[in-house]
Amino acid sequence: MIICANSYEYVKKLEDDSIDLVVTSPPYNVDLGNNKYNKSKYNSYEDNLPQKEYLNQLKGLFADLMPKLKSGARVCINIGAKANGRIATHSDIIQFMNELGYLNVTQIIWDKSQVGNRTSWGSFCSPSCPSFPTPFEYILVFAKDNLKLQEKDLTKEEFIDWSLALWKFAPESQMKKYGHPAMFPKELPKRLIKLFSWKGATVLDPFSGMGTTGVVCKELGRKYIGIELDESYCQLAHERIIATEVIE
User: Fold this and answer.
1) Which of 166, 223, 164 is nearest to 193 (CA)?
2) What are the backbone angles phi and psi of residue 60, rounded to the nearest 5°?
3) 189 within 8 A of 23, measured Cβ to Cβ
4) Residue 245, SS3 per DSSP
5) Which of 171, 244, 243 is nearest to 25 (CA)?
6) Per mean pLDDT, which of 23-32, 125-134, 163-172 is the most reliable?
7) Please, are residues 212 and 24 in contact by the beta-carbon 8 Å criterion?
8) pTM above 0.85, yes or no
9) Chain-centroid distance, C-alpha 92
Protein backbone atom coordinates (compact mmCIF):
# COMPACT_ATOMS: atom_id res chain seq x y z
CA MET A 1 0.00 0.00 0.00
CA ILE A 2 1.34 3.42 -1.01
CA ILE A 3 0.03 6.46 0.86
CA CYS A 4 0.63 9.84 -0.75
CA ALA A 5 1.13 12.11 2.25
CA ASN A 6 3.65 13.99 4.37
CA SER A 7 5.28 11.27 6.45
CA TYR A 8 5.97 13.66 9.33
CA GLU A 9 2.21 14.01 9.76
CA TYR A 10 0.88 10.67 8.55
CA VAL A 11 2.84 8.36 10.86
CA LYS A 12 0.66 9.68 13.70
CA LYS A 13 -2.36 8.10 11.98
CA LEU A 14 -0.91 4.58 11.79
CA GLU A 15 -2.41 1.95 14.05
CA ASP A 16 -0.60 1.41 17.35
CA ASP A 17 1.41 -1.83 17.70
CA SER A 18 1.03 -2.60 13.99
CA ILE A 19 4.51 -2.41 12.43
CA ASP A 20 7.05 -5.25 12.56
CA LEU A 21 9.90 -3.58 10.66
CA VAL A 22 10.89 -0.17 9.30
CA VAL A 23 13.29 0.01 6.34
CA THR A 24 13.91 3.52 5.10
CA SER A 25 16.36 6.05 3.76
CA PRO A 26 15.33 9.61 4.64
CA PRO A 27 16.54 12.55 2.56
CA TYR A 28 20.19 13.20 3.48
CA ASN A 29 19.84 17.00 3.57
CA VAL A 30 22.72 17.43 1.11
CA ASP A 31 21.02 19.98 -1.19
CA LEU A 32 20.30 17.66 -4.09
CA GLY A 33 20.07 19.62 -7.33
CA ASN A 34 22.72 22.08 -6.18
CA ASN A 35 25.08 19.43 -4.86
CA LYS A 36 28.09 19.26 -7.19
CA TYR A 37 28.01 15.45 -7.02
CA ASN A 38 24.27 15.15 -7.74
CA LYS A 39 22.57 17.69 -9.99
CA SER A 40 19.18 15.95 -9.79
CA LYS A 41 16.71 17.06 -7.14
CA TYR A 42 13.53 15.80 -5.53
CA ASN A 43 10.28 16.87 -7.21
CA SER A 44 8.52 18.08 -4.06
CA TYR A 45 11.11 18.40 -1.32
CA GLU A 46 13.85 20.95 -0.73
CA ASP A 47 16.81 18.95 0.51
CA ASN A 48 18.59 21.81 2.23
CA LEU A 49 17.20 22.52 5.69
CA PRO A 50 19.32 23.95 8.51
CA GLN A 51 20.91 20.84 10.02
CA LYS A 52 19.30 21.35 13.44
CA GLU A 53 15.83 21.68 11.90
CA TYR A 54 16.43 18.60 9.75
CA LEU A 55 17.45 16.51 12.76
CA ASN A 56 14.53 17.79 14.84
CA GLN A 57 12.11 16.75 12.08
CA LEU A 58 13.58 13.25 11.95
CA LYS A 59 13.57 12.94 15.73
CA GLY A 60 9.92 13.96 15.80
CA LEU A 61 9.01 11.34 13.20
CA PHE A 62 10.72 8.49 15.05
CA ALA A 63 9.19 9.65 18.33
CA ASP A 64 5.72 9.50 16.75
CA LEU A 65 6.60 6.13 15.23
CA MET A 66 7.54 4.44 18.52
CA PRO A 67 3.97 3.56 19.66
CA LYS A 68 3.14 2.28 16.17
CA LEU A 69 5.81 -0.44 16.44
CA LYS A 70 5.28 -3.86 17.93
CA SER A 71 7.55 -4.87 20.78
CA GLY A 72 10.78 -6.17 19.25
CA ALA A 73 10.25 -4.33 15.97
CA ARG A 74 13.39 -3.26 14.15
CA VAL A 75 14.04 0.16 12.62
CA CYS A 76 16.66 0.29 9.85
CA ILE A 77 17.84 3.71 8.67
CA ASN A 78 20.13 4.09 5.65
CA ILE A 79 21.99 7.41 5.85
CA GLY A 80 25.17 8.99 4.50
CA ALA A 81 27.55 11.57 5.95
CA LYS A 82 27.71 15.15 4.69
CA ALA A 83 30.66 17.26 3.60
CA ASN A 84 32.98 14.29 3.03
CA GLY A 85 32.42 13.05 6.57
CA ARG A 86 32.76 16.36 8.40
CA ILE A 87 29.05 16.36 9.29
CA ALA A 88 28.33 12.99 10.88
CA THR A 89 24.54 12.78 10.51
CA HIS A 90 24.57 9.10 11.43
CA SER A 91 26.06 9.96 14.83
CA ASP A 92 23.33 12.53 15.50
CA ILE A 93 20.66 9.97 14.57
CA ILE A 94 22.12 7.37 16.93
CA GLN A 95 22.10 9.93 19.72
CA PHE A 96 18.49 11.01 19.31
CA MET A 97 17.25 7.44 18.76
CA ASN A 98 18.83 6.47 22.09
CA GLU A 99 17.21 9.51 23.72
CA LEU A 100 13.85 8.32 22.39
CA GLY A 101 14.35 4.90 23.99
CA TYR A 102 15.31 2.80 20.98
CA LEU A 103 17.85 0.05 21.57
CA ASN A 104 21.00 -0.17 19.44
CA VAL A 105 21.20 -3.39 17.41
CA THR A 106 24.09 -2.66 15.04
CA GLN A 107 25.62 -0.22 12.58
CA ILE A 108 26.31 -1.71 9.16
CA ILE A 109 28.75 -0.12 6.72
CA TRP A 110 27.51 -0.31 3.12
CA ASP A 111 30.58 -0.20 0.87
CA LYS A 112 29.29 1.13 -2.45
CA SER A 113 32.79 1.22 -3.97
CA GLN A 114 31.73 4.38 -5.75
CA VAL A 115 33.42 7.77 -5.69
CA GLY A 116 32.60 10.76 -7.86
CA ASN A 117 35.18 12.37 -10.11
CA ARG A 118 37.96 13.41 -7.71
CA THR A 119 38.71 16.90 -8.96
CA SER A 120 38.48 18.54 -5.54
CA TRP A 121 41.28 17.34 -3.27
CA GLY A 122 41.21 19.99 -0.55
CA SER A 123 44.85 20.60 0.30
CA PHE A 124 46.39 18.38 -2.39
CA CYS A 125 49.41 16.38 -1.18
CA SER A 126 49.31 18.29 2.10
CA PRO A 127 48.16 17.23 5.57
CA SER A 128 46.66 20.69 6.08
CA CYS A 129 43.04 19.98 5.07
CA PRO A 130 42.67 17.15 2.53
CA SER A 131 39.28 16.04 1.24
CA PHE A 132 38.03 12.56 2.21
CA PRO A 133 35.24 11.37 -0.11
CA THR A 134 33.07 8.67 1.46
CA PRO A 135 32.29 5.76 -0.90
CA PHE A 136 30.16 4.17 1.82
CA GLU A 137 26.96 4.77 3.75
CA TYR A 138 25.59 3.64 7.09
CA ILE A 139 22.69 1.35 7.88
CA LEU A 140 21.69 1.97 11.48
CA VAL A 141 19.57 -0.73 13.12
CA PHE A 142 17.52 -0.17 16.28
CA ALA A 143 14.90 -2.14 18.20
CA LYS A 144 11.88 -1.36 20.33
CA ASP A 145 11.89 -2.89 23.83
CA ASN A 146 13.88 -6.07 23.21
CA LEU A 147 16.55 -7.57 20.96
CA LYS A 148 15.08 -11.02 20.29
CA LEU A 149 13.41 -12.09 17.06
CA GLN A 150 12.53 -15.73 16.52
CA GLU A 151 10.79 -16.02 13.16
CA LYS A 152 12.91 -15.71 10.03
CA ASP A 153 13.02 -17.25 6.56
CA LEU A 154 16.62 -16.55 5.55
CA THR A 155 19.00 -19.34 4.61
CA LYS A 156 22.09 -20.42 6.50
CA GLU A 157 24.29 -18.94 3.76
CA GLU A 158 22.44 -15.62 3.84
CA PHE A 159 22.80 -15.42 7.61
CA ILE A 160 26.53 -16.10 7.49
CA ASP A 161 27.14 -13.54 4.72
CA TRP A 162 24.85 -10.80 5.97
CA SER A 163 25.56 -10.96 9.69
CA LEU A 164 28.97 -9.42 9.01
CA ALA A 165 28.45 -5.66 9.45
CA LEU A 166 30.28 -4.76 6.24
CA TRP A 167 28.15 -5.09 3.12
CA LYS A 168 29.51 -4.60 -0.37
CA PHE A 169 27.16 -4.23 -3.30
CA ALA A 170 26.59 -1.70 -6.05
CA PRO A 171 24.30 1.32 -5.69
CA GLU A 172 21.13 1.67 -7.77
CA SER A 173 21.97 2.11 -11.47
CA GLN A 174 18.51 3.00 -12.84
CA MET A 175 17.75 6.31 -11.11
CA LYS A 176 17.62 8.18 -14.43
CA LYS A 177 15.13 5.63 -15.74
CA TYR A 178 12.79 6.23 -12.82
CA GLY A 179 13.47 9.95 -12.48
CA HIS A 180 14.38 9.85 -8.81
CA PRO A 181 17.71 11.24 -7.52
CA ALA A 182 18.29 9.05 -4.47
CA MET A 183 17.21 5.41 -4.76
CA PHE A 184 18.79 2.51 -2.95
CA PRO A 185 19.14 -0.85 -4.77
CA LYS A 186 16.86 -3.80 -4.05
CA GLU A 187 19.73 -5.64 -2.35
CA LEU A 188 19.63 -3.27 0.63
CA PRO A 189 15.99 -3.81 1.70
CA LYS A 190 16.20 -7.48 0.71
CA ARG A 191 18.90 -8.18 3.29
CA LEU A 192 17.23 -6.15 6.02
CA ILE A 193 13.78 -7.63 5.39
CA LYS A 194 15.05 -11.21 5.46
CA LEU A 195 17.26 -10.63 8.50
CA PHE A 196 14.68 -8.82 10.62
CA SER A 197 11.24 -10.06 9.56
CA TRP A 198 9.26 -13.05 8.37
CA LYS A 199 6.57 -13.88 5.81
CA GLY A 200 3.39 -11.95 6.56
CA ALA A 201 5.17 -9.27 8.60
CA THR A 202 4.21 -5.62 8.09
CA VAL A 203 7.05 -3.43 6.81
CA LEU A 204 6.93 0.38 6.75
CA ASP A 205 8.97 2.81 4.66
CA PRO A 206 8.01 6.39 5.62
CA PHE A 207 10.16 7.80 2.79
CA SER A 208 8.95 5.45 0.08
CA GLY A 209 10.32 7.18 -3.03
CA MET A 210 10.11 4.76 -5.95
CA GLY A 211 8.78 2.00 -3.69
CA THR A 212 11.87 -0.21 -3.76
CA THR A 213 11.15 -1.50 -0.24
CA GLY A 214 7.61 -2.31 -1.37
CA VAL A 215 8.84 -4.19 -4.43
CA VAL A 216 11.05 -6.39 -2.25
CA CYS A 217 8.26 -6.87 0.29
CA LYS A 218 5.97 -8.22 -2.42
CA GLU A 219 8.69 -10.54 -3.73
CA LEU A 220 9.32 -11.89 -0.23
CA GLY A 221 5.74 -12.20 0.99
CA ARG A 222 5.62 -9.25 3.39
CA LYS A 223 2.89 -6.63 3.82
CA TYR A 224 3.97 -3.11 2.92
CA ILE A 225 3.08 0.42 3.89
CA GLY A 226 4.90 3.18 2.03
CA ILE A 227 4.45 6.90 2.68
CA GLU A 228 5.59 9.36 0.03
CA LEU A 229 5.08 13.11 -0.39
CA ASP A 230 5.31 13.37 -4.19
CA GLU A 231 2.32 12.23 -6.24
CA SER A 232 4.34 11.23 -9.30
CA TYR A 233 6.69 9.10 -7.20
CA CYS A 234 3.64 7.48 -5.57
CA GLN A 235 2.17 6.56 -8.95
CA LEU A 236 5.42 5.12 -10.27
CA ALA A 237 6.00 3.18 -7.04
CA HIS A 238 2.48 1.76 -7.25
CA GLU A 239 3.08 0.65 -10.83
CA ARG A 240 6.40 -0.98 -9.90
CA ILE A 241 4.83 -2.94 -7.06
CA ILE A 242 1.84 -4.05 -9.15
CA ALA A 243 4.24 -5.36 -11.82
CA THR A 244 6.35 -7.28 -9.29
CA GLU A 245 5.98 -11.05 -9.07
CA VAL A 246 6.10 -12.97 -5.80
CA ILE A 247 9.19 -15.16 -5.42
CA GLU A 248 8.20 -18.68 -4.43
Assistant:
1) 223
2) -60, -40
3) yes
4) coil
5) 171
6) 163-172
7) no
8) yes
9) 15
